[in-house]
Amino acid sequence: MFDRLRAFWQGRVFFLARGDQLPRFLNCVLQEGVVLYHTQKSERGMRARLKLDDFRRLRRAARLTHTRVHIIAKYGWPFVAARWWRRKGLIAGVIVIAAGLTFLSQLVLLISVSGNRNIQSVEILEKAEKLGLRTWTYSKGLDLNQIAKTLQEELPDAAWIGLERNGTEIIIKVSEKRRPSIPKEAGNLVASHAGLVKEIMVIQGIPQVHEGEIVRAGQVLIAKTPNPVPPTKPNAVGQKTNPVKSSVPTPPTSAAKGFVRGRVWYSAEQQISLVEDKLEESGRVADGWGIKFGSRVIMVTMQNSPFAQADQEVLSHSFQPWRNWRFPVEVIQIKYKELHKVHIQRSIAEARQLAEESARADVMKKISPGAQIVEETVKVLPGNSGAERVRVEVETYEDLAVYANP
After folding, report:
1. What global pTM score does this model have?
2. Strand 214-215's sheet: what is its strand order?
């Protein structure tokens, strides 16, 4: 390893020597103290390599033995540096571009708002600009925590505001306050699910159903109390009556209050095959590495998956040398996870158990939170040949009454 680095730093010259006195030429070279590497004899003469500093010392031996020396190839840092020096303009351009990218990466080039629904983005950006958060500003000079705190104080409808720096972009994340919905509380109580009413208690409103009655989803259970009809003032015979105008405002409609409990049934079906072929991870993983410049990705190793079928997982490794400043270049790692076909053969009991567990999980997703499970029934249904079909039915006792959407 170190020998190769030393050879690259010193530089090596590959040359071809041709003449009638090659043995004498070789002896003269060795007497000069020149070290030759990988010396080979060929039909055209003698090939060898030596250090760049020793190449000029071949002149005396070549002149004495009338040997012609031709350079075949050059290798090492001195030749690379000389080639770069001839392209000073290109190097200067690369340095200017790198300096420009480094400078621009420390500025705020984009400001975006996310998470807001009722608060206008324009209002948030205007207030942020007054606090010093604007484009083309030095990002390290911004106190994002203090700006977020001040924004939250100036926006009464915001429950929380956070600022996230993502490269040259500042993302203002807003979480708005959830205020109670007044129209929802001033409506009718309707059935959330179809079921059998077992208990009803009316605190305010007019009941629309009775115990033992089957209701459907959305049916009104307790209606709100209507507004009182204003009294009318009698006029002369043959004229229409006009309502009495009063300075007292009309009271708002009273919301329905109470609870209605009943029995609700949920069900779900699942079918599991006795024989199944599916793809699973075999455990073999291959990694591919690349470099990402902005939105462009250049893969250095393993551009494509080495497996016939595989899942890909992309991981990004960014270099962050100082606080929130991020290097504009990222290292991309792609994990290729091999997939292989697995042939599964189940017994009837195993297929029924899997179908039952899957159907029960589907039923539990439908049941309302806090509902009391009264009874569960599992039924084996006739299914297709080579498959087991199971139906799970669950009976619950829960509150049916919810406010209707305005």
Report:
1. 0.45
2. 214-215, 195-204, 257-273, 387-399, 372-381
The helix or strand, by DSSP H or E, that contains position 259, with its residue range, turns out to be strand 257-273
Centroid of chain to Cα 173? 16
Q: Are 261 and 195 in contact (CB under 8 A)?
A: no
Q: How far, in Å, are 44, 229, 231, 345 from residue 245 at the CA level?
A: 123, 12, 9, 82
In this model, does residue 180 exceed pLDDT 60? no
Contacts of 365 (CB under 8 A, 6+ apart): none
Please name the residues in contact with 3: beta carbons below 8 A apart, sequence gap of 6 or more. none
Q: Which of 43, 48, 78 is nearest to 62 (CA)?
A: 48
Q: Is it the case that residue 182 has pLDDT exceeding 60?
A: no
Q: Are 273 and 344 in contact (CB under 8 A)?
A: no
Q: What's the mean pLDDT in 256-273?
A: 92
Give the 3-state secondary structure percentages of the chain, helix then strand then coil, rounded to 5: 25, 45, 30
Q: Which two tokens stand for residue 298?
A: 């250049």
Tokens representing 195 are 């079921």
